[in-house]
């Protein structure tokens, strides 16, 4: 799983050098030790994944930290499937909300999340915090 996720991230960074914005090794170490994943494989290749945290028993808020769909699989419904998987997982654990951050200049992502029921709750440092009630 680790290798497949790294390959997809590196491919995306080839299109957008600022995609991760930090050293990939340390970022992946943090994700692999703390996050949960849903991964979509097709013919042995990772077509998309979502990394999320669903462990805050105090606020009962899940947090999507990274979602990525391969360029050739975009607009196929895979992103929606991944987000909905997290939402269903969080609901099944009794969580009440799901949050994520999106770059304020990424209007396409904001529109995508808006269609899935997310709305803006804060704007800070060039990022918009969005939430969906579960």
TrEMBL record:
| CDD domains given in the database record | NAT_SF
Q: Does the keyword Iron apply?
A: no
Which keywords label this protein? Answer: Acyltransferase, Transferase
Pfam families linked to this entry: Acetyltransf_1 (PF00583)
N-acetyltransferase domain location = 1-134
Q: Which PANTHER family match?
A: AMINOALKYLPHOSPHONATE N-ACETYLTRANSFERASE-RELATED-RELATED (PTHR43877)
- In Swiss-Prot or TrEMBL terms, this protein is called N-acetyltransferase domain-containing protein
């Amino acid at each position: 799983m680790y290798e497949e996720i790294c390959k997809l991230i590196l491919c995306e960074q080839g299109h957008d050098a600022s995609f991760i914005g930090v050293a990939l090794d340390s970022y992946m170490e943090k994700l692999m030790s703390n996050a949960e994943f849903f991964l979509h494989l097709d013919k042995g290749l990772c077509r998309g994944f979502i990394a999320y945290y669903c462990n805050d028993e105090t606020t009962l808020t899940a947090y999507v930290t990274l979602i990525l769909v391969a360029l050739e699989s975009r607009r196929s419904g895979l992103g929606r499937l991944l987000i909905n998987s997290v939402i269903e997982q969080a609901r099944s654990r009794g969580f009440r909300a799901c949050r994520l951050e999106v770059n304020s200049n990424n209007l396409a992502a904001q529109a995508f999340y808006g269609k899935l029921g997310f709305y803006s709750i804060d704007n800070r440092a060039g990022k918009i915090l969005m939430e969906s009630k579960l």
